[in-house]
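Archive entry. Fields below.
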Amino acid sequence: MSPSITRRDFLKLTSLLPLLYLHMPSEKAEFLSSSHDSGQPNVLVFVFDALSARNMPIYGYSRNTTPNLARFAERASIYHSHHAGGNFTTPGTASLLTGVYPWTHRAIHLYGSVLDPFRNRNIFSTYSGTGYKYAYTHNPQAELLLQQFQADVDLLKHTRELAIYDPEYSDRIFASDHNVSFWSEQLILRGNDTKPSSLFGNLLFRTSRLSEIKKIASEYGRQYPRGVPNLDDVYFIPEDAINWLIHELPASRKPSLGYMHILPPHGPYDPRKDFIGIFHDDFKPTSKPTSQFTQGFSDDSANENRLQYDEYLAYADEEFGRLLDAMIQQGTLDNTIVIVTADHGELFERGIVGHVTPVLYEPLLHIPLLISIPGQTQRQDMYPLTSCVDILPTLAKLTGQPVPEWGEGEVLPGFRADPIQSDRSVYAVDAKSSPKHGPLNKLSVAVMKENYKLIYYRGYPGIPGSELFDLSNDPEELQDLSSSKPTIAADLQQEIEQRLRLTNS
Amino acid sequence: MAGIAFPIHVWAIVIILITFPSWLLRLSMGELVGAISYPLVDALLESSILLLGFVILAFILPGKWLADKFVALSSALAWLMAAWAVLVQFIYVRIVQWGPEKMIPGSLLVVFSLGLVYWLVQRYDQLGNLIKRLVQGLMVLAYLYLIFDMLGLVVVVVRNL
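PREDICTED_STRUCTURE:
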């Protein structure tokens, strides 16, 4: 007698197992219902600065840059088409924290700030009630934003408190006018765009700064041969922030919302010495045409920078792994929703390195999003198009708060009963050359809808108006389809222009 | 005060004007007034500290060394120091890489030039008188600076109440 189920049948049935996961009362469903019964869960939002999903093996990268994030992903939902709201810290972080796009919150400049209404429209204000809220970032640009939300944060750990050097004075002397005094301090002592306005005082400042930096280099130089991790004069040891968080997690009052925004892998790429030279490969990324916004980097030079970035990323990943292990050991992972993401990505192609550029190609916008809920033991892969503005409404839903009406995002798939609209548009904006308080007249906008992505440039003389890519068939954005598919390009451009008209009116 | 305040304020105002367009993108009108006020207050502070330094020296040193030609000497020295400071702003990146073989002669050159100007003003009364006349011409500007600095101080205080 032949068996009733053949090997082939068995394999077919096995392939249906994932469907069972979706159909059966899942851990997620149990958690969502129990979270309503037992009050708010703890939440930790962990942000890597300038982490491109395109440099992570869980998103298909060939270098093993993030083994610890891969370990975490085995118990998390992975969003495969998640996008930043901007291409540098200020707009990207502000969109993540406020749940609206840069053209709405208007934190569009380097060290920019959100419009006043968003001071109390953010993830901290959304997580209201008795929850304890704490935040820390290495990045002074992100800190300027967090200071705006300070009224809704119980413990805003200042960047300086976990840094080894931070020579900012305005936040100490003129704290109540920091958004303005910050700019004055830049002009008086640093003169970033020009020379400092202080003729004599800045020389004292610069001499003292130089001597401090030399001291740091001699103290930590052996551990960090390429330089001590830093950004805009703030020097720090990444371990210190992770150690603080490991201590803070069990110590914080329950329920809690934590926001941790670490600088690595944001440049300068200065890993600890044990991460230098870890990738011995002949990896060569796809060669791409030079952008009209090229900074003049050759492919070889861009690849060298990519290698250093990957090493710094591996260092950041190890620190995340240390946190993960500590959370498992403490048991805090069992009662915490952990959201891992980035504020924007990083680019090493088309003659451009970094992210200070008007272009909006995928390595800059495609960022990771991994969400693990208490008790989750299996990986879940999510493919719909999502945006950083979706995190705020999702958090609201997860913590039993009403989803704010002013948000521009949607509850993420996996945390909603109905499927997300397949023809939804997701945007990213770079408007650093436009005024905060006025019409956005010089900017680039990316709109992603279904398979297509249109990058629209306005106000850049000599730059073609738009580029169209089919991301499902051309994820590397090599074929500009704007002339071969003019109708799609025109529709998407019109959609952007409508949004801009609304914004500028 | 006019002689000392002049180079410090001219430099600050030029830098503010250069920066102004980029601030226009970022700041509202109210914030702009605030942002301009801080560097003006800083210019007032730097002028006052430099003046105080010369006043203290005039008290300490014998009268003929400084006090007798206070306006001419303090102004001439302040202008020369300001000129060196402006030069340093432009070549700072190179200066920080200098070793002692360049730093020592560079510093000596500054000291020597200050000494030379001091000697010239002491030696030639006509030069001292010319500087005094120039400083008198700058008095109107000094009053203007003072008014704006004071307004800036008020703005800074109000914004931080």
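CURATOR_NOTE: Chain A touches chain B at residues 109, 112, 174, 176-177, 179-181, 183-185, 187-188, 191, 193-203, 206, 210, 433-437 (CB under 8 Å).
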